[in-house]
From TrEMBL, chain A:
GO terms for biological process: DNA repair; positive regulation of mitotic recombination; transcription by RNA polymerase II. This is DNA 5'-3' helicase. GO terms for molecular function: 4 iron, 4 sulfur cluster binding; 5'-3' DNA helicase activity; ATP binding; damaged DNA binding; hydrolase activity, acting on acid anhydrides, in phosphorus-containing anhydrides; metal ion binding. Residues 250-289 form a coiled coil. Its EC number is 5.6.2.3. PANTHER family: DNA REPAIR DEAD HELICASE RAD3/XP-D SUBFAMILY MEMBER (PTHR11472), GENERAL TRANSCRIPTION AND DNA REPAIR FACTOR IIH HELICASE SUBUNIT XPD (PTHR11472:SF1). Residues 7-298 form the Helicase ATP-binding domain. GO terms for cellular component: nucleus. It catalyses: ATP + H2O = ADP + phosphate + H(+). Keywords: 4Fe-4S, ATP-binding, Coiled coil, DNA damage, DNA repair, DNA-binding, Helicase, Hydrolase, Iron, Iron-sulfur, Isomerase, Metal-binding, Nucleotide-binding, Nucleus. It comes from Paramecium primaurelia. NCBIfam families: rad3. Belongs to the helicase family. RAD3/XPD subfamily. Signal peptide: none annotated.
From TrEMBL, chain B:
InterPro entries: Ssl1-like, TFIIH_C1-like_dom, VWF_A. The keyword Transcription applies. It is found in: Nucleus. This is VWFA domain-containing protein. Belongs to the GTF2H2 family. Keywords: DNA damage, DNA repair, Metal-binding, Nucleus, Transcription, Transcription regulation, Zinc, Zinc-finger. GO terms for biological process: nucleotide-excision repair; regulation of transcription by RNA polymerase II. One of its GO terms (cellular component) is transcription factor TFIIH holo complex. Residues 54-229 form the VWFA domain. It holds the Pfam family Ssl1. It comes from Paramecium primaurelia. It comes from the Eukaryota.
């Protein structure tokens, strides 16, 4: 259908346009008009992506001067493919209307997802390294294996890409084309990204400093950047700047250095020549003296010679090792030790006699050296590069970072001491992006409270809007359960974790639920350890046995592959009418990005309040930082984080207007006012305060039964909640 | 005091309703017309020369039937309203038969073969009780049903009515396979559920042109179950025309107890097959000895409304007429029988088409 917003003609690929989609597009258009950044919240499963694409593509076509490119960032490959299919749909609809846009859309992913060389692609984790081995500049014919796909690409890249018709190229298309013309899809995609109007790739291509620096040369200011599912963007930003080191990594780094050293000392003319050449180049760069901006190739004299650099890195690693050792002693008595980056730098400098400018440039210098020495297996040298990264960030950024020593209890190895350079400032990564692009749009199903994002990401949005859903019937039913039948409180509070009553009550509640919910039931718990604890207790009390009579029971495990097979089986059980229950973790893989549409998810129960562990040093420090800089209190942040996680879990259940589902929050803490305020409006509005807030588990079951009987009735979406071509 | 107040408000409500009725006289008539249309449509479907229907009622008695969200329990509510339904069903479909089966833990048991004796069915219904184990299995039920239906005549329309209380179907067999078998055997599957919509079961009912109903309370249950009384159209059903040997039996009442051949029960009044003289208890049924189709004359007459009754035509002449049914004067809108040219008010029209199936004027 075709319609006009203000003066922009939008072509929408469906026959119906929901009211909230129109509202969303209007808000989006306002953002683009004002050339600013925006935050938009719209309920899941209401056609967010397609309305966004329809509007921006219309904008691209009609205002080519103000916007030239759309960069769409997704979190997973599956989402990327879905988005590209939607782009295809929009472009097809535009073509059907007789418009000739000449748009090219392309998806870019890692080598692992795009490689088609049969020798390489089977190597799974080593695809990157194997590919580099075959495609690096210095690899000459006959010397080692080459990749025929890449060679063909090099020969005729420009022509082929120029000859490609304007179309949508999803990852599958790229692979297919590549197999047909025997050209490397990965490099083709990388080349196409420069020219294409619509680009879809992963968050990290923009956020991760090591990756984004490679791409940033080709960016155009007049672009719209969209971050889909952006509710966790601050975590991604922080993770990108956090570096972890421990004893094995440092030892490995030393080994790396030894490898490099032997190569340098080898007396082959060729390598010596190359090293000399490199040195000359660096000197030349110095003479040219770029104007103003920081040129990364200006390498300080102390590390300009390869041999000196190796020496320098050795000193860096040794001083880090010493630090780790010193602090390990102290860790025996305390939980964690904190250092300020500034004092820590000074200590290291004194220890190894290091110079600040050299530390700043050591990452660049390392890449250069590896290039000169023609080392392709960069994954083997990752320990060394993380050391370089560590010191680089340490020197470069003073505020918002902390060096933390603590025992590593994540990976099961006891007494393993971990040195973390932790970043707490999520605005750091986003700062570049906000400055680099004209419009950045953050969008998701759950971004409430919306005011907090501009604060922690440090930007000023021109539009920050939460869009409501219009439901013909009450197809979602949030329920907050705070008590069990006998009046004891239901809570996952830390102080009550050993209380058997609580776990028994939860078990009983789940059993009742499993009996009364048809098809799929998804249960989210705060953490793995808590789930294991509860499961043990339920096993003892025979709850699990009884639940599995009503539903086939699946439990999420830490292994990704195992979980995905379990998910497949879960869906199969729902399909045959047996019904299934899935126990998973509120912060796990299933809580994000996996949709349970229709009968796959009829009920989501969040058992316990999924708060971050406030005893963890990293989180404590982050809260301290937020309080200092943005005046967000620790409680506020922990609540905010738990609620967004909860709502993300709850949002899994509603994937469209025909869909229906129950959202259960079983913890007395959910009923507190401060938590209710942090719920997205579309969920809060559906919460029946008199009937579903603060009730016992028994009355919750009554509500559940009534709800499913009511929803079984045949149903049609009300005419006034959508527009057709005629009614618009 | 409290009681009085409540009573008052109830009274006011009624008064208001009556007042509204007078004020919106037009709407009232519209409602009636709509009702007439519905009953006519149902009448036309019932006219389908599907003389015989076989209905198997399968009642879920597993653990979830004990749940007391319907008072006193789900199963009790079902058993409370089923007798009335069966009575009505047999009355409206005189040549039809009903069988009863119960679903238990992973299996299904027929407790009564097809019969049209209302007393008999009610007696068996009262013996049904809940069991403690979970494990309702749709596939097992279908397997049993197919077995039961294999002995019935081909020209009868066969349908199953599930009364389920579970939110799952725990099958040891392949449910898809058995539902496909039902589909190819043209068995219609209907579900009336206490628990909500199960995706797979809805799909099965749709594939066999059945209905999936989900009543909210006791009253709705009694209303919704009525929908199964008149036969529904079925795409799958292949019309098989064949000659049927029919016999009209003789009724006998004796003082000595005797065994009937069909259900092997002690009876005092029975019918005698005109071919082989075996004793049977409740026509219509297939004579167990000689396979003659034993029916009573009025049953044939009533089920074949085609020759005796047609849809009445609506006449909107604004004149006063006396209704031939209730002998009250009718105004504005009324209908007339094509054959005897008598006038009827809409109320009588609906009643005639839904219940009597015989026009009092023509008769």
């Amino acid at each position: 259908m075709k319609f006009v917003i203000d003066d922009l003609e939008v072509i929408f690929p469906y026959k119906f346009l929901y009211k909230e989609q129109l509202e969303y597009m209007q808000a989006l258009k306002q953002t683009l008009d004002e050339k600013g950044h925006g935050i938009l919240e719209m309920p899941t499963g209401t056609g967010k992506t397609v309305s966004l694409l329809a509007l921006i593509i219309a904008y691209l076509a009609q205002r080519p001067n103000s916007i030239k490119k759309l960069i769409y960032c997704t979190r997973t490959v599956v989402e990327m493919e879905k988005t590209l299919e939607e782009v295809r749909l929009v472009l097809k609809a535009r073509k059907a209307e007789g418009l000739n846009d000449n748009f090219t859309a392309v998806g870019l992913s890692s080598r692992r997802n795009l490689c088609i060389n049969p020798d390489v692609v089977n190597q799974k984790d080593r695809v990157d390294a194997e590919c580099r081995k075959r495609t690096a500049e210095w690899v000459k014919k006959g010397q080692s294996e080459t990749c025929i796909f890449y060679e063909n690409f090099e020969k005729s890249a420009k022509e082929t890409i120029a000859n490609l018709p304007n179309d949508v190229y999803s990852l599958t298309d790229l692979r297919k084309n590549g197999a047909y013309s025997i050209q490397c899809p990965y490099y083709t995609a990388r080349e196409m990204v420069k020219k294409a109007n619509i680009v879809v790739y992963n968050y990290l291509y923009l956020i991760d400093p090591t990756v984004s620096s490679q791409l940033s040369k080709d960016q155009i200011k007049e672009s719209v950047v969209v971050f889909d599912e952006a509710h966790n963007i601050d975590d991604v930003c922080i993770e990108a700047y956090t570096v972890r080191l421990n004893k094995p990594i440092l030892a490995e780094a030393i080994n790396n250095l030894k490898v490099v050293e032997t190569q340098i000392q080898s007396e082959t003319n060729e390598i010596q020549n190359r090293l000399n050449e490199e040195y000359k180049k660096l000197i030349n760069n110095l003479e040219k003296k770029p104007e103003g901006e920081l040129n990364q190739l200006v390498i300080p004299g102390q590390i300009r010679k390869a041999r000196n650099f190796i020496d320098f890195m050795k000193r860096v690693i040794n001083s880090l090792r010493k630090k780790l050792k010193d602090n390990s002693e102290a860790l025996k008595t305390s939980h964690a030790i904190l250092h300020n980056p500034k004092s820590f730098t000074e200590e290291i400098q004194k220890e190894g006699n290091l110079d600040i400018d050299s530390l700043k440039q050591c990452g660049e210098r390392l890449n250069l050296l590896l290039n000169t020495l023609q080392i392709a297996e960069t994954d083997k040298f990752r320990p060394l590069s993380s050391v370089a990264q560590f010191v680089m960030y340490l020197v470069q950024y003073q505020e918002g970072f902390k060096v933390i020593f603590q025992s590593n209890n994540y990976e099961g190895t006891l007494n393993e001491k971990l040195m973390t350079l932790a970043c707490f400032d999520s605005s750091l990564a986003m700062k570049n992006i906000f400055a680099l692009f004209q419009s950045v749009i953050l969008t998701s199903g759950t971004m409430s409270p919306i005011e907090i994002y501009p604060k922690i990401l440090d930007f000023k949005p021109v539009v920050a809007k939460s869009i409501d859903i219009e439901l013909t019937r009450n197809s979602i039913q949030p329920i907050i359960v705070s008590m069990s039948e006998d009046g004891t409180e239901l809570t996952s509070e830390f102080t009550l974790r050993n209380n058997e009553d609580v776990s028994r009550n939860y078990g009983n509640f789940l059993l009742e639920l499993s009996e009364n919910v048809p098809d799929g039931l998804i249960v989210f718990m705060p953490s793995y350890s808590r789930m294991e604890e509860w499961a043990r207790q339920w096993q003892k009390d025979k709850y699990l046995e009884q639940i599995s009579k009503n539903k086939v029971l699946f439990i999420e495990s830490r292994d990704v592959n195992e979980t995905s097979t379990k998910l497949q089986q879960y869906r199969k059980c729902c399909d045959v009418g047996r019904g299934a229950a899935l126990f998973s973790i509120a912060r796990g893989k299933i809580a994000e990005g996996i949709d349970f549409e229709g009968h796959y998810g009829r009920c989501v129960a969040v058992i316990g309040f999924p708060a971050l562990n406030s005893k963890d040093t990293l989180i404590l420090e982050r809260c301290k930082f937020l309080e200092e800089k943005f005046k967000i209190t620790k409680n506020d942040f922990i609540e905010f984080d738990a609620m967004r996680q909860t709502c993300q879990c709850l949002g899994r259940v509603l994937r469209g207007k025909q869909d229906y589902g129950i959202m259960i929050m079983a913890d007395k803490r959910f009923a507190q006012k401060s938590k209710l305020q942090k719920m997205p409006r579309w969920i809060y509005k559906q919460l029946d305060q008199s009937r579903c807030l603060n009730i016992t588990s028994e009355s919750a079951i009554t509500v559940v039964r009534d709800f499913f009987r009511q929803m079984a009735k045949p149903f049609k979406i009300a005419d006034n909640s959508y527009f057709t071509q005629d009614t618009l | 005091m409290q009681m009085e107040l409540e009573g008052n408000t109830k009274f006011n409500e009624y008064e208001e309703k009556i007042r509204n009725h007078q004020a919106n006289g037009h709407n009232y008539q519209q409602d009636k017309l709509h009702q007439k249309k519905e009953s006519d449509a149902q009448f036309l479907i019932a006219q389908n020369p599907l003389l015989m229907r076989n209905l198997l009622i399968i009642i879920d008695t597993t653990k979830s039937s004990k749940i007391s969200d319907f008072k006193p329990s789900r199963l009790a509510v079902a058993l409370q309203f089923l007798p009335a339904f069966i009575e009505q069903f047999l009355e409206c479909n005189p040549l039809s038969q009903i069988g009863i089966a119960v679903a238990e833990e992973y299996k299904c048991k027929t407790i009564l073969d097809f019969t049209s004796s209302c007393v008999n069915i009610k007696q068996y219904l009262s013996t049904i009780h809940s069991i403690n184990e979970a494990g309702f299995s749709m596939a097992a039920c279908l397997q049993t049903a197919l077995h039961v239906f294999s002995t019935t005549q081909l020209h009868a329309q066969s349908s199953i009515l599930f009364v389920t209380t579970s939110t799952y179907s725990d099958d040891k067999l392949d449910l898809n396979e058995w539902s496909e078998k039902c589909e190819s055997a043209a068995i219609q599957i209907n579900v009336i559920s206490f628990a909500g919509a199960i995706h797979q079961l809805i799909k099965i009912t749709q594939a066999t042109d059945g209905q999936y109903l989900c009543p909210i309370n006791e009253y709705q249950f009694s209303q919704e179950i009525q929908k199964f009384i008149s036969p529904q159209e079925s795409k799958n059903h292949k019309m098989i025309t064949q000659l049927v040997k029919i016999g009209f039996p003789q009724k006998l009442i004796v003082s000595q107890p005797t065994l009937c051949q069909c259900h092997l029960e002690i009876v005092y009044n029975f019918y005698k097959c005109p071919v082989c003289y075996s004793k049977v208890c409740s026509p219509p049924l297939l004579c167990p000895i000689c396979s003659t189709w034993i029916v009573l004359p009025h049953q044939i007459l009533r089920s074949d409304g085609f020759n005796t009754l047609a849809v009445f035509e609506i006449i909107n002449d604004g004149l006063d007429h006396i209704c031939y049914g209730c002998l009250e004067s009718t105004t504005d809108i009324h209908s007339t029988c094509e054959r005897c040219k008598n006038f009827f008010c809409l109320d009588c029209d609906i009643l005639i088409h839904s219940k009597f199936k015989v026009c009092p004027g023509c008769a």
